[in-house]
């Protein structure tokens, strides 16, 4: 039997959660900065950020870019619909399955039909993703993620596919932040890798390589699906 050793960010996350549950930090309270928490626990800042991201993903914290980290005003244990903000994980899985079928096709057509203005639009979104990563702005990163996939659909120049993607936009926008947080919690330096994967998809589309574009976006969505399956 394999014995798992608790990781640093898991220990920090558990301690922070205990402070919230025991009332040391109340709903709406602002937490100490990452630097202060890092010094207090004697761990690196990346470890603290992973712990905070995990608690945000579970619905305990609200991380505001440039404004600090706060305890959620409504804690998971107080939710009328239960303690788990991922109770709709099965629905999220269905959405990912639909996206895999739909977006591998849109990527194929985008590689074949893209025009210069489509590539410019995709490059602009990638630029926004890079800036969001540099600023550690998760909200902007999530918005750019949605915009990137919408831009691929537009580059397919198939109006029906674009309409289908638009119909998913609202649900996608609601869930992509949750899946990104789960993914970032699972893997170190995932934000950088996520950007690199989007850049690889863009390069395949720009090169007109339909097969590679379809493969890369399928692999990308499968990784997200696998993280969600672990949560289920």
Topology:
Layout: H1 8-21, H2 34-41, H3 45-57, E1 61-64, E2 68-71, H4 89-113, H5 116-135, H6 138-155, H7 159-186, H8 190-206, H9 210-231
Antiparallel strand pairs: 1-2
Notes on the protein architecture:
With 232 residues, the chain is mainly α. It folds into 2 domains: 8-78, Orthogonal Bundle (Arc Repressor Mutant, subunit A); 89-231, GntR ligand-binding domain-like (Four Helix Bundle (Hemerythrin (Met), subunit A), Up-down Bundle), CATH 1.20.120. 71% of the residues lie in helices and 3% in strands. The protein contains 9 helices and 2 strands, in the order αααββαααααα. It has a two-stranded antiparallel sheet with strand order 1-2. The longest helix has 28 residues, at 159-186. The chain starts with 7 loop residues before the first helix and ends with a helix. 31% of the residues are buried. Keywords: DNA-binding, Transcription, Transcription regulation. GO terms for molecular function: DNA binding; DNA-binding transcription factor activity. Residues 6-74 form the HTH gntR-type domain.
């Amino acid at each position: 039997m394999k014995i798992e050793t608790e990781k640093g960010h898991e220990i920090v996350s558990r301690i922070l959660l205990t402070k919230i549950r025991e009332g040391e930090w109340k709903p709406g309270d602002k937490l100490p900065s990452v630097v202060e928490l890092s010094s207090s626990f004697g761990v690196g800042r990346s470890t603290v950020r992973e712990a905070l991201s995990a608690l945000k993903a579970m619905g305990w914290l609200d991380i505001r870019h440039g404004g600090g980290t706060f305890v959620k005003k409504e804690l998971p244990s107080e939710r009328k619909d239960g303690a788990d903000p991922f109770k709709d994980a099965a629905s999220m899985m269905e959405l990912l399955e639909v996206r895999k079928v739909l977006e591998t096709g849109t990527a194929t057509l985008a590689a074949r039909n893209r025009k210069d203005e489509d590539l410019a639009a995709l490059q602009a979104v990638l630029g926004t993703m890079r800036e969001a990563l540099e600023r550690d702005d998760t909200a902007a990163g999530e918005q750019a993620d949605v915009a990137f996939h919408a831009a691929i659909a537009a580059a397919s120049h198939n109006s029906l596919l674009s309409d289908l993607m638009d119909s998913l936009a609202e649900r996608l926008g609601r869930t992509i932040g949750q899946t990104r947080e789960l993914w970032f919690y699972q893997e170190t330096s995932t934000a950088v890798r996520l950007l690199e994967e989007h850049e690889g998809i863009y390069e395949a589309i720009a090169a007109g390589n339909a097969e590679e574009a379809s493969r890369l976006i399928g692999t990308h969505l499968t990784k997200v699906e696998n993280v969600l399956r672990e949560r289920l």
